[in-house]
Amino acid sequence: MSAEAILSDEYWMGIALAEARRGVGHTSPNPAVGAVIVRDGKLVGSGWHHRAGHPHAEIEALRSLPDPALARGATIYVTLEPCSTQGRTPPCTQAIMEAGIGRVVIGALDPNPSHVGRAVGLLRKADIDVSYGVLEEDCRRLNFAFNKWIVTKRPWVIAKAGFSLDGRITRPPGEGQWITNEASRADTHRLRAEVDAILVGGGTVRADNPRLTVRLPETGTGAQHPRQPWRVIVTQSGNLPPEAALLTDEYRTRTLVFTGKKLRDVLDELGRREVTSVLIEGGERVLGEAFDERLVDQVCFYIAPLLMGGPRLVVGGLGVGTTAEAPRIVNPQYERFGSDLRLTGEVRYPEEEE
Q1: Where are the alpha helices (DSSP H) in 249-283?
Q2: C-alpha distances in angstroms, 11 versus 17, 107, 134, 334?
Q3: Which range is least confidently modeled, 20-29, 37-46, 203-212, 219-228?
Q4: 81 is catalytic
Q5: Percent helix, strand and coil across the chain, each rounded to 5?
Q6: Pick from 36, 44, 45: which is nearest to 16 by CA?
Q7: pLDDT, tens digit, for every residue of 52-78?
Q8: Tens digits of residue pLDDT in 192-219
Q9: How far apart are CA 93 and CA 262, in angstroms?
Q10: I need a labelling partner for 301 at 20 to 30 A (CA). Which of 8, 97, 140, 200 fits?
């Protein structure tokens, strides 16, 4: 394949990725997928998967064509290998073949071990030219939560916290002042909007009475996000204030309470409920257990330039015996939000690097 063709494929796959990102936070337990149809070097159709049970991206792209005849001999770019089995919707491979598409370019192959490469084989058997691996890493990372869940049936776990420069979440008694700034908190709502569930410990409910809802400050109205994640409380004592917002507000039916259960067992149960991603927002006991049990896949930490002191650390737990045993953040990324610093990155544990 010529360099010009490779560049062209990357260009169009980039547009398909932009389509796919429109579905992030809405498609679970399905992946976010985008597709574009190109004919004679021109974009003639595009689509993205809106939510589970709705048409897949390939179908949306085919339906967007002003004339179905434009599909014949055209190239479709799709960020994830098309489905090849009957699920909530019919297989996309069949629709692609029936439309007369001449070439299929795939970003990432299906992570499901029982399906990977199946669509490639079916399409090639139908004399359709197939390429895959174009912008593969970008396409794969778009669905890191789905990729884990479809294989392990466990959700992708993000540890999120806002704390002072000395690693404290301590605040003076009775003070409701935030440690992090407004820009950091706004970014937290963006993150909440992309996950299936938000998890806290009973201590956080008793101390802070959080709502854990998604709000959209960028609208200027503070309007609620149309899709509210599950709110999950993990409590050992079961001693929760009956007036707690999570138990009484308009989203109380979206609150799950687990009493006397280990965090690993709670995450397994959420996975069985088709929860593919969980944001742990604290407190220190829950985050400590999450790291002690090697359950965290990613961190999102907001660090404020304050020195709070006090007893409440961001992460509790037993800790590690030696520095060599400590989990590490790989490919860390840093971004400023006003005076705050956000650190994000995937977590790797020593046994995974051997």
Answers
A1: 263-272
A2: 10, 12, 10, 27
A3: 219-228
A4: no
A5: 30, 25, 45
A6: 36
A7: 989 999 999 999 999 999 999 999 999
A8: 999 999 999 999 999 889 999 998 655 4
A9: 42
A10: 140
Q: Identify whether the C-beta of residue 52 lies closer than 8 Å to the C-beta of residue 28.
A: yes
Tokens of 257: 């309470």
The percentage of residues in the chain with a pLDDT greater than 70, rounded to a whole number, is 91
At 83, give phi and psi (nearest 5°): -70, 145
Higher pLDDT, 159 or 1: 159
Q: Is 224 exposed, middle or buried (0-12, 13-18, 19+ CB in 10 A)?
A: middle
Residues 6+ apart with CB under 8 A from 289: 262, 263, 295, 317
User: Residue 114: pLDDT band by 50, 70, 90 thresholds?
Assistant: confident
Please give the full DSSP string across 144-185, using - where no structure is assigned: HHHHHHHHHS--EEEEEEEEETTSB----TT----SS-HHHH
Residue type, 319: G
Residue 37: which of 24, 48, 25, 46 has the closest Cα? 46
* Active-site entry in 19, 58, 60, 289: 58
* Rounded (5°) CA angle 67-57-25: 145
Position of tokens 């090697």?
294
Count of other CB atoms within 10 angstroms of residue 56 = 28
Q: Where is 76: in which H helix or E strand?
A: strand 75-80
How far is Cα 45 from Cα 19, in angstroms, rounded to an integer? 11
Q: At what angle do helices 263-272 and 284-292 cross, to 10 degrees?
A: 80
Query: For residue range 121-171, what is the model confidence (pLDDT) as tens digits?
Result: 999 999 999 999 999 999 999 999 999 999 999 999 999 999 999 998 877
Please provide residue 161's backbone torsions phi and psi, each rounded to the nearest 5 degrees.
-160, 150
